[in-house]
Amino acid sequence: MPTHTMGAARLHEHGGPEVLRYDDEVPIPEPGPGEVLVRVHAVGVNPPDWYLRGGLTRMPGETESTVSLPVIPGTDVSGVVEAVAADVDDLAVGDEVFGLLRFPSFDGSAYAEYVAAPASDLARKPAGIDHVRAAGAPMAGLTAWQFLIELGHDQPSPFQEAPHHPTALDAGTTVLINGAAGGVGHFALQLAKWKGARVIAVASGAHESFLRELGADQFIDYTKSRPEELVQGVDLVLDTVGGPDSRRFLRTLKRGGSQFPVFPGDFDEEETAELGVTVSTAQVRSNGRQLAELGRLLDAGTVRVAIDSTFALPEARAAHERAARGHIQGKIVLTVPQ
Predict the structure, then answer these.
(1) Measured between alpha carbons, how far is residue 71 from residues 2, 87, 109, 328, 333 in Å?
(2) Given this structure, which CATH class describes domain 5-140+285-335?
(3) Domain boundaries, the chain
(4) Which residue, 49, 205, 250, 257, is most buried by CB atoms nearer than 10 A?
(5) DSSP string over 176-230
(6) pLDDT at residue number 304
């Protein structure tokens, strides 16, 4: 292992993709108590990465910023354990691991050749997938898992007072997923199918064959049709897009149904009460145990990670430019030469 420095993509200022700079003499972190040092093989690119780049330095619910420039963005990693703190006994040097690091916070520091990671945020990488796909799984996969399968923690949400409760999914359940081709959406589709649910996928027409291959029972091209005019009686809407248009999906729900906006939208309590539906959201949190469960599904091929594109770590700017163009199919991943 190099004894002093590493390469990392860092932000020295906030702005567009052009402010991402690759520095090759960044100090290698030392693992603290409960941590391991991971030699990074691949890094998943996620919305919080470009939020941080753009100037957001405080997570919802935080009272103050934890960010000081220069900062290494990123939370999703896959790699190999290089060193282990004395109090860590469930991981060893040489273990292949993947994880969502220190989320919710901007302290992941994953866009680097090495990262110090809490052991509790990590799971062993499924043997059946490579590091690129493993790096694409943590944030998107855990978001889908915690919204649909099990929240997995009792931390209060900054978005609502009541705890989020996933809807029981089975063969009698119909789920509509808006933004089904994206990172969270394509995981949510597969997890809902794993539970036996019928899934209606909403995306642009270019993604139809991809989503039907993943198991979508019905596809709606939002560029040609309005889902709320075609669908009624749905048990659950998972909206991965959010924004002011999210409330239109309330009309697709049956009484007693639920809508889960991944990005909180603007909802009217009187309208939801009149319709007899529930709106609930959550904030994804790092969870090595849940990631291990997801890893078993990945290893078995029950769930797969779709890769939109890959870029070498020094090309982090190009990866963010790709993200800004939208219409992503699966995940964007940075690769780290070994």
Answers:
(1) 21, 28, 7, 26, 19
(2) alpha beta
(3) 5-140+285-335, 165-279
(4) 49
(5) EEETTTSHHHHHHHHHHHHTT-EEEEEE-GGGHHHHHHHT-SEEEETTT--HHHH
(6) 97
Record the tokens describing residue 234, joined without a space.
Answer: 């749905």
- 160-179 pLDDT, tens digit per residue, is 999 999 999 999 999 999 99
Token couple for 89: 């006994």
Question: In this model, does residue 252 exceed pLDDT 80?
Answer: yes
Query: How does pLDDT run across 282-326, given as a tens digit for each residue?
Result: 999 999 999 999 999 999 999 999 999 999 999 999 999 999 999
Report the half-sphere exposure of 255 (CA within 13 A, side-chain side).
4
Whether 305 contacts 137, CB under 8 Å: yes
Whether this prediction's pTM lies above 0.85 is answered by yes
Q: Is the pLDDT of residue 64 over 90?
A: no
In angstroms, the CA 30 to CA 50 distance is: 26
Neighbouring C-beta atoms of residue 73, cutoff 10 Å? 27
Tokens encoding 318? 């190009």
Report pLDDT digits (tens) over 222-248: 999 999 999 999 999 999 998 888 999
Q: How many CB atoms lie within 10 A of CB 80?
A: 17
Closest CA to 158 of 237, 105, 108: 105
Q: Which phi-psi region, left, alpha or beta, contains residue 172 (left: φ > 0; alpha: ψ -120 to 50)?
A: alpha
**Residue 2, pLDDT above cutoff 60:** no
DSSP state of 86: T
DSSP 101-136: -S-SSS----SBSEEEEEGGGEEEPPTTS-HHHHHT
Rounded Cα–Cα distance for residues 278 and 269 (Å): 9
Residue with structure tokens 């997890």?
A: 191
Q: What percent of the chain has pLDDT over 90?
A: 93
Rounded Cα distance between 248 and 254, Å, is 14
